[in-house]
Design goal:
Chain lengths: ~100, ~200
């Protein structure tokens, strides 16, 4: 019965894989702004990369799938907040600016 | 006596059914406060960006992308090393865990050094806190993050000192894991800041 309960991992390989993906995404990111300057979906791509990086760290390094639901929700909420706000600012920037004017 | 024994027996069952707390509860109170603080700062960024989209589109071109990329690689790599320190401790390899933690500390120290050179480069190129709304927000967010990272580096030093004197074991490594969680959270925040200021031109 205890076999079904997932234990925190002591394996290095999944951490290494996550780190390599994070490094690759980091090295690609600065060129995206140069290659795709002015392209409409650049913001969408960057928002996606921010989410993927945050998700990788939360899942592989912090192991949120094993964590208490409150911690899991806090992490998932924070990781999702920025990409969503980024897209809202890009596509509804004027409405957001009007709403945020004192 | 009986009333004292009941909570001790119930605790493990509760932990299994609800999921574990990585590290300890105290660090998660701190991480939640850190997230709330940076959400407020990110809202400041989004409001400023919505009001001055041109300044934000042109601002990133004037910053050193190399500095931003180096800091990101340092953060991600130190986070990886500290995660390895926790994993090897769980595996019962305490000496390896110590070496991973030392590696994490060395790499994390590269962040304030890279930041120093970045600021020197900024000032040499006429970029200071009064160079426009983009740079005001940039300095505000990045300095705040540097302060949080400095706390993390001090935390690594403390945990390293405890580790050196055998303060952690495969059965009890909550302090080491708590530090790791804080550093990973600070890493996630930097990844957002990196995309805000160095990628989105």
């Amino acid at each position: 019965m205890n076999d079904s309960i997932k234990q925190p991992s002591s394996a290095i390989a999944p951490l290494s894989t996550a780190w390599l993906i994070l490094v690759a995404l980091t090295l690609i990111a600065p060129f995206l702004g140069l290659w795709l300057h002015g392209v409409g979906w650049l913001q969408l791509l960057v928002a996606g990369i921010v989410w993927v990086k945050g998700w990788l760290i939360a899942r592989q390094f912090i192991e949120i799938e094993l964590a208490h639901p409150f911690i899991r929700r806090v992490m998932q909420g924070f990781i999702l907040f920025t990409p969503v706000m980024l897209l809202l600012t890009v596509f509804l920037g004027n409405h957001f600016a009007r709403w945020a004017t004192l | 006596m009986t009333s004292l024994a009941i909570p001790l027996n119930e605790a493990p069952t509760e932990t299994v059914s609800k999921g574990r707390v990585p590290g300890n509860k105290g660090i998660w109170v701190g991480i939640c406060c850190e997230f709330v603080e940076f959400i407020v700062l990110f809202v400041v960024y989004f409001v400023a960006r919505a009001h001055f989209p041109d300044a934000f589109e042109q601002g990133a071109d004037r910053l050193s992308r190399l500095s931003g990329t180096v800091i990101t690689l340092l953060m991600v790599t130190s986070s990886f090393f500290i995660a390895c320190s926790v994993a090897t401790m769980r595996a019962g390899q305490q000496r390896r865990s110590l070496y991973w933690l030392i590696a994490g500390l060395i790499v994390s120290l590269g962040y304030p050094i890279a930041k120093y050179f970045e600021i020197q480069w900024n000032l040499a190129n006429g970029i200071n806190g009064e160079s426009g709304i983009f740079f005001t927000v940039y300095y505000y967010l990045t300095f705040n993050h540097l302060v949080h990272a400095t706390w993390g580096i001090l935390g690594i030093l403390w945990v390293l000192a405890r580790h050196l004197f055998g303060g952690y074991s495969p059965e009890d490594y909550a302090g080491l894991e708590a530090l790791a969680c804080y550093w990973h959270a600070t890493d996630i925040i930097w990844l957002v800041i990196f995309s805000f200021f160095y990628v989105l031109a």
